[in-house]
């Protein structure tokens, strides 16, 4: 009892002593609260407190509470996001890591291509089938601590957290395990940036830890190498090895392995087929090799030897990826469009079923005609080495056939798609220019029809250093718009754009489908009247669609190449939508269509009608050719691109020939493109008839309101008061031009003409009958011309005439006695001409001679009953 009593006494004494000291300390403090607080906050006293026994106990208590709250917060956060991960089972990871195939079909479900990358894209290789160099290279560049962490890198996560607070993408600090989880489970969320990506990062961390518990390191590395993107559609190292080097992943060399390990970081940039990124890819490959040296995977000598290899030169040609592909340019175009719509990640994962708009039957016909063309002598004679063609369904805007070059496997440029490249369309853009001109200009302006006149005469235009020329170098005078468009005259086209306005016309051309016309680089800033004759570049796919808008009577529908896309689960992720917008009045479109289908109007263009299609096949089509110009090595202007475009109410076709290096042509006539276009349109139209997509002999229905004046078409809003009036004019019979003061009376003829005013020059325009030119003066006669000379000698029974030739050759002679013509011999040359005649009374004889210039000479004599003594 004494022992316990003594212990208790000591404890009480100790507590009392501490309390006494505490009381003495408080008593020593200032009484005022503010002064007391300042006294305690003195730096010496603060330091003394925290280094005291009491301060140490306080710090331990605070640290414990904070640690507990942090653990609880992290646990709560993980528990919150863990509920979203119940449906993701990490032990199913291996099943999810599967390479997949995207299949492309034509509209009739015929297979066009299985997108596998190279070889059998569905093969998933085992760990033993992957070269050791690949594994070490991947670890060296992506995750050097791979074998030492438990799925996450704490320092990496902290670095990523700092980046996130600055609004950067959730990046940095990802281990191979995290990258695998992200690729398999969170590919669709990987593009989220800043704070929006934090939930995905937390889920990624949770799953990475779970994966590390369920798989060993070698299994995780194998899954990563089978799943990672290696550029384009090449997911998985086996597909990449076969694609780029034509070998299995097991046989990859050090240099090849380092190159592949460099790609997954930015597969779009580092895709070996992306030439723009090749330099960056090689630089990163060298970095991979340096990292391998640092981590003792290889020696410096091995790295140096690998760097000396021109690895890009060893990449297999991309053509090898498309063995067995049908309509290759079209399919690649579809894939590119899908990447834009669905994202490269989705397309890169594969597993899609793509039903395209292509009709393989029409595609095969197009390819057949292209082969025929390049087997003929025409390309060598004309001087072109490449060609392209596009066929569109007018009613839907769907592309049903397309060739981007003469042959996808042609050396050098075969894989380049000219159908989606910018090429000048030449005069094939003129129908769109006139479509805008035929629009309603309002009551204050003149409206136009096919019979309106835009004089084809030498004209000064703003923006031109000198008056521009027509392709033929001559001028047709006051021909109407029907002939101007059908004969592809440049001067009237310039006037048409000037009247409508350059911005307004370009806006209509783009709205009709040529959406990038005059929008590229210097073309946008310098677009002027030259754009009326195809002076800017456009894409064939756009151009054929713009002309199809005329075939839709002024309605635009975006061209498309995709009908439907399903993912690997059979869910529709993309589907064709039938969208449309009215751009121009149907009357304007109809007038253009009628002009382009008028074969009589185009007679004389290159000595023939543009296309014999209508006569040969009973198919009525609107046809327009086009030629762009370039300068040859001698500084001479020659043709560079030749086009033929044609459309019906059902189909729109464009064919182009030229050179990939824009070299000019020796004998470039746009009519050559018709040689290929005609049979394609004939076959395709008859195919549509057979399928019930169109009716034989179909043509556009004339819109109500169209006026027919003098055999020409005018829209309902055409103002007749500003149109044409009747008049008379005197012409010269010989030159068929306007008579002058020097024109002899015998050569003059008065002819009925029509009179109007050129809306561009504001000058009077006279429309004369065919063959007569009201724009030029008689140039056959001169005021100093000499008429023929005539003298007459009479006898009792003979009239003798001496005729002398003047400026022109002699033509005819009339011998008149007492007002009655007794003889009219044709004259060949000057000299004596005798006409037998017996005089019975005194008579007056007159002889009139006319030459080929319609000049006259005459002489008269009076006879007696007997011989004249003159």
- The chain-level structural class is alpha+beta
Let me know the largest β-sheet: 5 strands, mixed
Overall number of strands: 28
Mean pLDDT: 84
Report the principal-axis shape: elongated
What integer value in Å does the Rg equal? 45 Å
Low-confidence stretches: 117-122, 164-172, 190-195
Q: What order do the strands of the largest sheet run in, or round the barrel if closed?
A: 2-1-3-9-10
Portion of residues within helices: 25-40%
Strand residue percentage: 15-25%
Kindly describe this structure.
By secondary structure, the chain is of the alpha+beta class. Helices cover about 35% and strands about 20% of the residues. The chain has 28 helices and 28 strands. The strands form 9 sheets. The chain has a 5-stranded mixed β-sheet, with helices on one face. Helix 20 packs across helix 23. The longest helix has 30 residues, at about 55-80. The termini are far apart.
In short:
With 870 residues, this protein is α+β, with helices and mostly antiparallel strands.
List keywords for this structure.
28 strands; five-stranded antiparallel β-sheet; alpha+beta; elongated; 870 residues; five-stranded mixed β-sheet
């Amino acid at each position: 009892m004494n022992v316990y009593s003594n212990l208790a006494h000591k404890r009480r004494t100790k507590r009392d002593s501490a309390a006494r000291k505490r009381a003495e300390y408080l008593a020593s403090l200032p009484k005022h609260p503010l002064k007391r607080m300042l006294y305690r906050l003195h730096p010496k006293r603060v330091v003394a407190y925290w280094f005291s026994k009491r301060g140490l106990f306080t710090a331990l208590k605070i640290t414990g509470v904070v640690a507990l709250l942090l653990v609880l917060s992290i646990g709560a956060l993980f528990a919150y996001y863990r509920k979203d991960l119940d449906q993701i089972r990490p032990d199913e990871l291996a099943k999810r890591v599967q390479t997949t195939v995207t299949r492309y079909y034509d509209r009739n479900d015929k297979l066009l291509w299985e997108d596998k990358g190279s070889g059998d894209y569905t093969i998933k290789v085992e760990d033993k089938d992957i070269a050791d160099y690949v594994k070490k290279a991947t670890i060296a560049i992506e995750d050097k601590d791979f074998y030492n962490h438990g799925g996450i890198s704490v320092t990496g996560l902290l670095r990523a957290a700092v980046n996130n607070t600055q609004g950067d993408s959730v990046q940095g600090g990802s281990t191979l395990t995290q990258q695998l989880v992200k690729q398999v489970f969170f590919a669709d969320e990987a593009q989220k940036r800043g704070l929006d990506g934090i939930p995905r990062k937390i889920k990624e961390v949770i799953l990475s830890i779970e994966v590390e518990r369920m798989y060993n390191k070698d299994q995780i590395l194998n899954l990563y190498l089978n799943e990672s993107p290696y550029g384009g559609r090449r997911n998985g190292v086996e597909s990449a090895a076969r694609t780029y080097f034509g070998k299995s992943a097991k046989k990859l060399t050090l240099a090849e392995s380092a190159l592949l390990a460099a790609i997954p970081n930015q597969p779009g940039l580092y895709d070996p087929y992306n030439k723009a990124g090749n330099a960056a890819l090689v630089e990163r490959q060298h970095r991979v090799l340096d990292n391998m040296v640092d981590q003792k995977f290889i020696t410096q000598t091995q790295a140096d030897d690998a760097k000396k290899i021109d690895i890009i030169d060893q990449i297999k040609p991309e053509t090898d990826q498309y063995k067995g592909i049908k309509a290759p340019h079209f399919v690649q175009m579809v894939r590119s469009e899908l990447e834009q719509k669905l994202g490269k990640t989705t397309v890169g994962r594969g597993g899609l079923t793509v039903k395209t708009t292509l009709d393989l039957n029409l595609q095969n016909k197009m390819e057949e005609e292209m082969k025929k063309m390049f087997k003929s002598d025409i390309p060598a004679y004309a001087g072109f080495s490449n060609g392209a063609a596009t066929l569109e369904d007018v009613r839907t805007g769907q592309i049903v056939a397309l060739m981007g070059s003469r042959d996808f496997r042609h050396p050098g440029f075969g894989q380049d798609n000219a159908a989606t490249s910018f090429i000048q369309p030449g005069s094939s853009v003129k129908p769109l220019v006139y479509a805008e001109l035929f629009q309603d200009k309002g009551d204050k302006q003149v409206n136009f029809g096919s019979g309106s006149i835009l004089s084809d005469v030498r004209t000064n235009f703003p923006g031109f250093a000198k008056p521009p020329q027509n392709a033929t170098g001559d001028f047709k005078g006051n021909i109407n718009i029907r002939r101007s468009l059908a004969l592809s005259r440049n001067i009237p086209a310039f006037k048409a754009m000037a009247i409508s306005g350059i911005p307004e016309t370009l806006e209509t051309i783009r709205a009709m489908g040529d959406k990038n016309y005059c929008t590229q680089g210097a073309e946008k800033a310098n677009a002027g009247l030259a754009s009326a004759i195809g002076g800017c570049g456009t894409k064939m796919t756009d151009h054929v669609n713009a002309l199809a808008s005329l075939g839709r009577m002024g309605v635009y529908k975006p061209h498309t190449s995709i009908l439907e896309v399903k993912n690997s689960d059979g869910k529709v992720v993309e589907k064709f939508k039938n969208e449309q917008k009215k751009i121009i009045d149907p009357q304007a479109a109809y007038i253009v269509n009628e002009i382009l289908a008028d074969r009589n109007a185009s007679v004389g263009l290159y000595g023939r009608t543009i296309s014999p299609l209508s006569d040969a096949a009973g198919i009525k089509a609107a046809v327009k050719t086009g030629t762009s110009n370039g300068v040859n090595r001698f500084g001479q202007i020659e043709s560079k691109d030749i086009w033929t475009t044609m459309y019906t109410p059902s189909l729109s076709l464009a064919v182009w020939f030229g050179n990939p290096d824009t070299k000019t042509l020796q004998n470039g006539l746009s009519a050559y493109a018709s040689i290929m276009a005609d049979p394609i349109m004939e076959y395709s139209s008859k195919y549509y008839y057979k399928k019930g997509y169109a009716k034989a002999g179909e043509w556009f229905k004339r819109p109500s309101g169209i006026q027919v004046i003098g055999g020409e078409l005018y829209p309902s809003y055409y103002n007749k008061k500003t149109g044409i009036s009747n008049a008379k004019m005197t012409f010269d019979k010989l030159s068929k031009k306007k008579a002058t003061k020097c024109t002899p009376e015998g050569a003059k003829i008065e002819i009925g003409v029509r009179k109007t005013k050129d809306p561009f020059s504001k000058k009077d325009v006279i429309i004369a009958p065919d063959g007569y030119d009201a724009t030029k003066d008689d140039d056959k006669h001169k005021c100093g011309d000499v008429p023929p000379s005539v003298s007459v000698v009479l006898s009792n029974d003979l009239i003798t005439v001496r005729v002398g030739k003047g400026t022109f050759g002699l033509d005819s002679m009339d011998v008149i006695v007492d007002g009655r013509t007794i003889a009219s011999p044709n004259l060949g040359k000057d000299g004596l001409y005798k006409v037998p005649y017996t005089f019975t009374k005194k008579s007056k004889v007159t002889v009139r001679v006319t030459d080929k210039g319609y000049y006259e000479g005459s002489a008269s004599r009076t006879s007696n009953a007997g011989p004249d003594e003159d």
